[in-house]
Amino acid sequence: MTCRIMLTCLAAVCALALSAPALAHSPTAGTAKLYADNVVLDWRFGADYPAWVDTAVTTALESDYPNRAFNNSRMPTFAYSALGSGAVVFSNSATSPCTGNPDWLQCAAGGGTDTWRIYVRNFRAAPHGSWWWFNETGACPAGKTCWDMRRALEHEILHITMSADHDSQGEANTVMGSVSPWLPNGGWNTHHIQRCDEAAAQLLYDLASTAGVYANCYDHIAGAVDGKLESTISMAGTSAFACSGQAVAVKGRAAILNTTNYKRLADNPLTNRTVWFDRKLHSGATWTLNIASTLASNVSGNNWTKSFAVSTPTTISYDYRAHYDGEVGVDDDTSPTFTITWSRAC
Fold first, then answer.
1. By the 8 A CB rule, do 221 and 227 touch?
2. 326 near 275, Cβ under 8 Å?
3. Which residue, 49, 187, 194, 346, is the most exposed by fewest CB within 10 angstroms?
């Protein structure tokens, strides 16, 4: 049987269908930190190419890939320079410049260096059956099998920036499948990295903004809960005493759990997240929920504070607890109890 499959780059794979999604969601396979945080990689075109190629490549490198809605990490970014060390080549080669395979669509070499290369095939100069780039005209000609060059480039960028392996978790989770999807298959025109790619990038390079999102793809990371990172809400101290009506400032920290399993994300402050407070009589059992709130900041150590005051004709004690309700990618947590006693006798 002859298997006509559309290959991405580094491995020749023969299959009858696109990769099926895996049941679990884990950071993209085989990744490694290849550059320092926030490095800007200069790049150029390998030659003078048609305008549609220039547009597709520039958009993929400088807009799609660094889009903070999908890539909240400190991975390298790209900036065009006519004298750039890295290059994107619209290749006239009938065999892969990376492997020599004739069934090639795109490939990458030199990840971790300044002289990296990404190659995409020029189907006019190096035809391969009915293969074609959708971007040339924004439509798929009759009888052609079409790919999106911007999608192809997102795959190769991750080979360059973090040595990502091919991964079988499916197009909703990663752009690193061993088979590039073609129109009209799911993911054929995805223009950003996916959540498990972002999770791998965050573990290696940290977040671009601690106020931004976590990737929600942390299954198989020791200490993760249902694919989410554990948070920790603490209070500085356990009790305080004050005169009736006097304000008492309670402090604490809202952060990602400090564990080596979380790599660069350990102890990250939960910046701009809401910390809620519950209260009950010290002698009682029933909590009144969400009586107050505050926002956590991005500082080290205690990163939230909240003041409480009670006017009372007699001495009274209240217990308080802080809680963070979690989000996509981060689990919830509740602090230990803090007791404040107000006295009329002051």
1. no
2. no
3. 346
**Residue with token string 């009950």:** 280
Give the alpha-carbon dihedral of 89, 93, 98, 103, to 10 degrees.
Answer: 120
Helix (H) or strand (E) holding 106: strand 106-109
CA distance 18 to 104: 16
Of 163, 148, 152, residue with least CA distance to 75: 163
Q: How many CA atoms lie within 13 A of 71 on its CB side?
A: 25
Structure tokens at 137: 């005209």
- What is the spatial distance between Cα 32 and Cα 163, in angstroms, rounded to a whole number? 6
276 and 333 Cβ atoms separated by less than 8 Å: no
pLDDT tens, 123-172?
999 999 999 999 999 999 999 999 999 999 999 999 999 999 999 999 99
pLDDT tens-digit profile of 299-326?
A: 999 999 999 999 999 999 999 999 999 9
